[in-house]
Amino acid sequence: MGKRFAGLVTATLFFAMPFTASAAEPLSPEQKEAVKALIRETLISNPELLEEAMGILVKKREEQEMAERKAELDRMGAAAATHRAALERDAKDPTFGPSDADVTIVEFFDYRCPYCKQVADRVLNVAKADKKVRVVFKEYPILGPQSVVAARAAIAAQALGKYVEFHQALMAWKGQMDVDSILKVATSVGLNADKMKTEMAKPEVEDRLRTVMSLGRSIGISGTPAFLIGKQLVPGAVDEDYLKQLIADARAAK
User: What does UniProt give as the signal peptide span (predicted)?
Assistant: First the structure.
């Protein structure tokens, strides 16, 4: 169909050539109108060409967008490579899994992000099933003040020794993320509300958030969830099978 469309347009222009004085001279207004009339007649006689032309245009735009997206992910991956230690081995980050794991999953997330909530259990399920996988949690509250409150609470839960339990409970929480609601979630996993409030108010909590936010921005992360697995930076919600494939790819690349 693409060749047919191009051929008909070429033929239309060819038949318009007698109206031109020479190839080097511009078309006169009358000649331009004659060319337009021939093209219009061709399209009226072959209306399917319009649909074909739109299909070609959409495909080209999709290919261009894919190429631009790949280039952006490659750039972000290169930026991440320069921050490998901060991403995978910052002692202040909460983690799950063995310290000698051969593959590390780094996840940037926001507790108010619906896609982060979708993948929360998937990430932990994969890590629990594969004893050589380690997860590094990066609090990345980009969806407003309540996200910041939730992230501060999670860091407080880490200090109190119940990060993963609180993380899972807060990801499962469906309501608002104001202080009262978050403390309710905290007590549901055995945390003391007063101790949580004390920890949340500590300046090192704010310092930690600032550090992680700066790291994410330096890489170019603008949405959540975002994963770094091996050398691959993967944005968006992923299923367990894809996570396992990314882990296998990371191992094969070593």
Answer: 1-23
Q: Parallel, antiparallel, or unpaired for β 133-139 and 232-235?
A: unpaired
Q: Please tell me the CATH code under which domain 84-252 is placed.
A: 3.40.30.10
Contacts with 35 (C-beta within 8 Å, 6 or more apart), sequence order: 12, 13, 16, 19, 27
Confidence band (pLDDT; 50, 70, 90) for 68?
low
Looking at the predicted structure, is the pLDDT value of residue 21 above 60? Answer: no
In this prediction, residue 19 carries a pLDDT of 44
d(C-alpha 230, C-alpha 113), whole Å? 24
The sign of the torsion formed by the CA atoms of 192, 196, 197, 202 equals: positive
